[in-house]
């Protein structure tokens, strides 16, 4: 109740919006299919178009449209309108389109259309009126451009029904049951560009065509069943005929009427084109060619037959006798009509034919010898044999080469498969359509004279032909991964390579086509790499060349941008310069490691690491080997430069003493092939003491350093007197490297033996050394 109360005070325009729900910014209101029983109230002068189609409106009242003074289009089709008030359209002086079709109007009133002086398009077909009245309901429609009328009950057209109309672009009359046509009814219309009439009676057809001979440009007759008619179409008229094109749609012919209509139509000297669509021929081709030949020369230049059904197809004759009637014909199209051959003797009479279309028929290779024999179609420039049953391209080319003036050839949608390396073609052939022919690979069979080549929808993996004159190339729906080589087709202006396996193309590839004006590379799975994006987004003028840009160019990878338009994708610095960044990181890591190595070398980091490793290994072993495992009295650690003193003096003094001492020397007692670290540790563990022969050479020796690195941890950690230091020459503890901190500490805190240069004191040295070894 509250809603009703509020709605009652809404402005009229808002009430209309509530009823229609969809008035756009241009004030075009769509109220169709809303179950309305009346035209909504609240129409205002702002509305320019009103769609009320497919509702349940039964009547139009005088005040319904009174305020809609600016209406340009009013759609009322498919309602239940049976009554319209006389003044219903009194305010619609600006109305240009009125559709009242498919309603229940039983009569038409001139008063309805009187105020509609701006009306251009009127549709009143599909109602229930049987005639247009005694006078013209359209007399005030001076600007009418198209008119569509008629229905299944429409049966009468009277003189004066079209008074007031002088010109129509299109007039369509649904008169399938039209039984009475008063001659001269359509003569008041001075010119009709396209006249469409559905009529079944031959007498009505003849009367209509006589009235339209001098006004219609294109006459289309539908649903007629043509039978014998002996009357002439032109009867003592001095006015020139204007009909240039005559179309029969859904018509039915007999052999007798084919002969008669051929003669009758010759009377229309302006007729240039004859067309038959979805027609039926009830006959075998037994035409009265004698009568046709006796009549005047036909002015028809173009004949087009589409989807012709011949009931006695396999009994049809070979059209013998009509040879003299085809020599002036310039264009012939017989499509979807089961043509399998044209007799050679007939084909030779088409001396003026320039265009021949036999697409969607039953032509086969072994019949081409008859259809395109030598001397046949001598002037032919365009031939369409698409969608037939041709299997061999080599044979097809052989017969087609008889057409010496042929320029354009369409043999698409045949199943050629593999094609030969060499073929013979007409020397002037410039256009060749081989699309949808199951070709897996192109060969030199393709003529080099071509300017346009279409090989779309095949199984091509690449394109390697050299066609120096080619200007247009169509490669849609193949399996190409790259653009063709530009050097082989230097004059290419337009190319379509859409729906292939093309991932990208480079600036160099694109620039190599010097003459390229249009490139259709849409609907491919593009890899949106940084190089590709940089080129395609910043190359000057490329967006004017690419067909379908940007909506048809979609990224397939990387995964993060899949489905996005190529033109809108932006990748990060890391994604675009990954190789450079990886290289930079590797260089920085190398420099960092190099710096660590230099620092480690300078501060003996490697030594500390090795010492740590040796210490860890030593920690896992028993601190003291069992007594039974002691094999040596001492392990001797010395520099190689001091080997003469150790091996020739010390070893002789100790090993030849009584009792002798058993010494472990690395040169003599290390196990060959065993890791040096293990040799050192094992030798120390199997020795009662360790002798260090210290000298300037010792502290500089790498060998001695390793022995200290890998073994001294355990010796010094045990805090025992297993180490015996022999100072072979004077050496300051400060001269010992800092990394030998334990050794320096022992030298500073423990007594060591010094080798005396005086021979008298040397005996005391040996005695002290032996005592130390025995302790």
From TrEMBL:
Membrane topology reported for the UniProt record: Single-pass type I membrane protein
Disulfide bonds: 23-29, 344-373, 423-445
One GO location term (cellular component): receptor complex
Membrane-spanning residues: 580-601
Gene Ontology molecular function, alphabetical: transmembrane signaling receptor activity; triacyl lipopeptide binding
InterPro entries linked to this entry: Cys-rich_flank_reg_C, EF_Hand_1_Ca_BS, Leu-rich_rpt, Leu-rich_rpt_typical-subtyp, LRR_dom_sf, TIR_dom, Toll-like_receptor, Toll_tir_struct_dom_sf
Keyword DNA repair: no
Example of a GO biological process term: inflammatory response
Keyword line: Disulfide bond, Glycoprotein, Immunity, Inflammatory response, Innate immunity, Leucine-rich repeat, Membrane, NAD, Receptor, Repeat, Signal, Transmembrane, Transmembrane helix
Domain TIR: 630-773
Localization per record: Membrane
Keyword Cell cycle among UniProt keywords: no
Summary of the function given for this chain in its UniProt record: Cooperates with LY96 to mediate the innate immune response to bacterial lipoproteins and other microbial cell wall components. Cooperates with TLR1 or TLR6 to mediate the innate immune response to bacterial lipoproteins or lipopeptides. Acts via MYD88 and TRAF6, leading to NF-kappa-B activation, cytokine secretion and the inflammatory response.
Subunit structure: Binds MYD88 (via TIR domain).
Recorded family membership: Belongs to the Toll-like receptor family.
Name of the protein in question: Toll-like receptor 2
Encoding gene (name): LOC104910743
């Amino acid at each position: 109740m509250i809603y009703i109360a509020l709605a009652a005070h809404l402005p009229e325009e808002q009430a209309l919006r509530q009823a229609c729900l969809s008035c756009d910014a241009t004030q075009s209101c769509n109220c169709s299919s809303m179950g309305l029983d009346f035209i909504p109230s609240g129409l205002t002068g702002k509305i320019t178009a009103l769609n009320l189609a497919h509702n349940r409106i039964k009547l139009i009242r005088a005040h319904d449209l009174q305020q809609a003074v600016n209406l340009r289009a009013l759609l009322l089709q498919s309602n239940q309108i049976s009554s319209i008030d006389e003044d219903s359209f009194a305010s619609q002086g600006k109305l240009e389109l009125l559709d009242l079709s498919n309603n229940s109007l039983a009569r038409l009133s001139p008063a309805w259309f009187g105020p509609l002086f701006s009306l251009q398009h009127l549709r009143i077909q599909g109602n229930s009126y049987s005639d247009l009245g005694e006078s013209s309901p359209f007399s005030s429609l001076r600007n009418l451009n198209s008119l569509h009328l008629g229905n299944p009950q429409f049966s009468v057209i009277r003189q004066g029904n079209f008074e007031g109309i002088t010109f129509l672009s299109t007039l369509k009359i649904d008169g399938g049951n039209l039984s009475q046509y008063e001659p001269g009814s359509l003569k008041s219309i001075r010119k009709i560009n396209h006249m469409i009439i559905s009529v079944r009676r031959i007498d009505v057809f003849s009367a209509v065509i006589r009235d339209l001979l001098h006004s219609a440009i294109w006459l289309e007759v539908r649903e007629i069943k043509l039978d014998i008619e002996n009357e002439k179409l032109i009867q003592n008229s001095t006015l020139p005929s204007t009909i240039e094109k005559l179309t029969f749609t859904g018509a039915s012919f007999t052999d007798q009427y084919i002969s008669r209509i051929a003669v009758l139509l010759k009377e229309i000297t302006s007729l240039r084109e004859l067309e038959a669509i979805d027609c039926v021929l009830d006959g075998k081709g037994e035409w009265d060619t004698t009568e046709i030949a006796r009549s005047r020369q036909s002015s028809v230049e173009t004949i087009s037959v589409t989807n012709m059904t011949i009931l006695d197809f396999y009994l049809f004759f070979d059209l013998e006798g009509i040879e003299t009637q085809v020599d002036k014909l310039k264009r012939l199209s017989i499509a979807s009509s089961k043509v399998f051959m044209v007799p050679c003797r007939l084909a030779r009479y088409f001396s003026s034919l320039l265009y021949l279309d036999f697409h969607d028929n039953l032509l086969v290779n072994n019949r081409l010898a008859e259809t395109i024999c030598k001397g046949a179609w001598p002037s032919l420039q365009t031939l369409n044999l698409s969608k037939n049953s041709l299997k061999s391209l080599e044979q097809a080319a052989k017969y087609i080469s008889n057409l010496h003036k042929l320029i354009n050839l369409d043999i698409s949608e045949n199943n050629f498969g593999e094609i030969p390396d060499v073929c013979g073609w007409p020397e002037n052939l410039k256009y060749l359509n081989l699309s949808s022919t199951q070709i897996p690979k192109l060969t030199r069979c393709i003529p080099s004279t071509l300017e346009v080549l279409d090989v779309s929808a095949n199984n091509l993996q690449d394109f390697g032909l050299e066609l120096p004159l080619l200007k247009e190339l169509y490669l849609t729906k193949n399996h190409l991964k790259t653009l063709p080589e530009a050097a082989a087709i230097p004059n290419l202006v337009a190319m379509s390579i859409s729906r292939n396996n093309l991932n990208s193309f480079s600036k160099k590839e694109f620039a190599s086509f010097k003459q390229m004006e249009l490139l259709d590379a849409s609907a491919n799975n593009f890899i949106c790499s940084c190089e590709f994006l940089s080129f395609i987004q910043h190359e000057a003028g490329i967006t004017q060349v690419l067909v379908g840009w940007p909506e048809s160019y979609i990224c397939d990878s990387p995964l993060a941008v899949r489905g996005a338009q190529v033109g809108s994708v932006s990748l990060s610095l890391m994604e675009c310069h990954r190789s450079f960044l990886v290289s930079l990181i590797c260089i920085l890591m190398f420099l960092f490691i190099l710096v660590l190595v230099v620092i480690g070398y300078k501060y003996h980091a490697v030594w500390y690491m090795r010492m740590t490793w040796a210490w860890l290994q030593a920690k896992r072993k028993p601190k003291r080997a069992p007594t039974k495992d002691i094999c040596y009295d001492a392990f001797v650690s010395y520099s190689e430069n001091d080997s003469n003193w150790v091996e020739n003096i010390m070893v002789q003094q100790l090993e030849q003493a009584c009792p002798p001492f058993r010494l472990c020397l690395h040169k003599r007692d290390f196990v060959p092939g065993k890791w040096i670290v293990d040799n050192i540790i094992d030798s120390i563990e199997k020795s009662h003491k360790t002798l260090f022969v210290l000298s300037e050479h010792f502290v500089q020796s790498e060998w001695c350093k390793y022995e200290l690195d890998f073994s001294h941890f355990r010796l010094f950690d045990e805090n025992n007197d297993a180490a015996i230091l022999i100072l072979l020459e004077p050496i300051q503890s400060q001269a010992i490297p800092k990394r030998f901190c334990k050794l320096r500490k022992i030298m500073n805190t423990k007594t060591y033996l010094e080798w005396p240069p005086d021979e008298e004191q040397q005996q005391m040295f040996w005695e002290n050394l032996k005592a130390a070894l025995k302790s």
